Amino acid sequence: MTRLKTTFGALALVAGLGLVAGCEEEGPAEKAGENIDNAAEQTQDAAQDAAQETKDAAQEATQETKDAAQEVEQKMEEAGQDAEQAGEETKQEMQGEQPKPQ
């Protein structure tokens, strides 16, 4: 019985050493797996960077559009006031009155 235990113990030790030795060296499958993992991580990082850049560009475009819309609104208001004043001056001239100074 002791000899059987010793034999199984020795086999277990050899098998354990074989597993440890097998884990130390990377085979082609392990290297390929690492390369795939690295490529996936780089792709994910690049996608996140691109998404952030797109978001930033969209926010900037939105702000520029708002600014342009405000400028157009102001110019239209000024043009409306100028047209109103010109109409009033024309009306006064047609009635023979002197236009009011600005």
- Work out the radius of gyration: 42 Å
Kindly state the mean pLDDT as a whole number? 84
N-to-C CA distance: 121 Å
Residue share in helix? over 70%
Strand content: under 5%
Number of strands: 0
Poorly predicted segments: none
Query: What sort of overall outline do the alpha carbons produce when their principal axes are compared?
Result: rod-shaped
- Taken in chain order, the helices and strands follow as HH
* Sheet of most strands: none
**Number of H- or I-type helical stretches:** 2
Q: Provide the structure class.
A: mainly alpha
Summarize the structure.
This protein is mostly helical and 102 residues long.
Give the helix/strand layout.
Elements: H1 2-24, H2 28-94
Structure description:
The chain contains two helices and no strands. It has helices spanning 2-24, 28-94. 0% of the residues are buried.
